[in-house]
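This part of the workshop introduces the protein records we will be handling. A record pairs a protein's sequence with a compact description of its fold. Comparing a sequence with its tokens is the quickest way to learn the format. The record below serves as our worked example for the rest of this section:
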Amino acid sequence: MENTTYHLTYIISAVLQILIFSVGAYFFSISIFGWIKRKEESTHSFKPQKTFALVVAAHNEERVIAQMIDSLKSLNYPKDLYDIFVVADNCTDSTSAISREKGALVYERFNTVKRGKGYAMEWIFDIIFKLDKKYDAVSIFDADNVVSSNFLMEMNKQLCKGHKVVQGYIDSKNPFDSWITCSYSIAFWTVNRLFQLSRYYLGMSCGLCGTGFCIDTEVLKKLGWGATCLTEDLEFTMKLALNGMKVSWAHDAVVFDEKPLTLKQSWNQRKRWMQGHADCAIRFFPKLIKKAVKEKNLIAFDCALYMLQPIRILFMGLVVVMAYLQWFYPRGTFFTMDYIIPTYVWTIFVIAQFLYGPMIVAAEKKFNLKVLLGFVIYPFYSLTWVPITIQGIIDRENKEWSHTLHTRQISINELEEA
């Protein structure tokens, strides 16, 4: 019995190590292409010509909606080329009144069955399509955001270059409010450079982030939105990949997003993300793999691997547990975890990953003493992903939307001056 368990744990540890290392090496190799930021054409080379419907999704956001609309009204773009729409979804506060006061076009939606941002987006898109005024693109934001003044100029540039779906740079509105907001900010800063920018340079698909992106109206009409799960951005990204389309990237189109202040808020938000991710993985992974193999499609393959992130997190957690158990069961007993991949390779890999973050944040010109302290706590934040992922996978069938309370009232002028 002990001999069987010995061989079984050996095989399990070997498979887990190879899978984790292989996928990690793949993502690491891709990320290298985001290291050096290339010089692109100036926005001034592209005359403002695209028209935009700017859609702000809001559910009881009376504390922050005014700053968001103010930032959109201050965009460095001809005012006759864009309109601001606020979809007040099941609001019971003053969100609608404040939005109207600020000059936005407000549409109130009340539906207690189909709740959540995805349904609200689908509803407002149908309304916009039926308006007499037509738009070249629709851009989506969250109510707690504020937007850099050059946002539409950057989106106009990318659309004029032929891109159909473009994601902007997601920055943090409150990076130093707490250790949680600092950890979130570090995560987004590194993802912007290592995941998004690298894929943009390689001609692969970036990922939609739920806010700060625009979609060509004809593409939206052709494919339909249809993204109504808990992670509607991920769902639509995969839908694009299956239809032979990709998400482009605008590194200088910045959207400042409010990060959760407490571990509890963060836990609930990330659990929702994992619920949606697990749901999308089950629905899209087989289709993406089939497309990748049949058509030798690298974008579909890359998206399929990303769908496996929850499983990869769980495997990494399991390997860590097995490594700790090694201390209690000496080599040769019924439990063993031999390092199939040489220890020095793992050591180099771990050190590189550890140094990677600070170096990238420094390259993004975000590094300071507070960020350095944030990196000390960041490993704990990363570890919380393991139980959160487990919860998300278990509760993937639960479609109930959980709202994150937003309270940070910061204007775009304060952020740009800082």
The two ends are 65 Å apart (CA to CA). The longest strand covers residues 248-257. The chain has one domain: 1-38+52-402.
